[in-house]
What we know:
Layout: E1 4-10, E2 18-21, H1 23-29, E3 36-41, E4 47-54, E5 62-65, H2 67-73, E6 80-85, H3 89-152
Parallel strand pairs: 1-5, 2-4
Antiparallel strand pairs: 1-6, 2-5, 3-4, 3-6
Amino acid sequence: MEGIEVKVQKRAFPSRGRVRVHTSLLADLAVEEGAGIEVTDRSGTKVVSLGAFADSMVAEGVVRMDPEDMKKLGVEEGAVVVVRRATPLGEKLKKETRETTEKVSKGAAEVGGKIAKEAGSAAESVKKGATGIGEKIAKGAGEAAESVKKKVSPGREKEL
């Protein structure tokens, strides 16, 4: 699991939704003051998103949390938790949009290939059918012309 392991301490002044960290931890997480971080229990099954605020009075390797936030996470004071940068919503949307676009493009290409293949097969069937029909029409037209020729000009077949 990515992130940095730290110990939890209760905040002296409760403030839900906020976590106090040593200034170096913000730099290590590559987040700015007030930015969101995720705090998870060691197993990674529970996650709490909190705003991170630097405090030089907080010891390195420690986060100070509100007791209610600790309760949501299911941890007691002194427990080891993992902190990591929370991915901003804009980044999540861009990533999911890119992944969806790739899936749609791939699916469209597959469908396009299948349509092209089936269209080719259909065209070949029509061509074969048209050739057969054309031959029947040509034969029928020839027979009709012969019949008309015989009826219109009896005795003049040699002239025609």
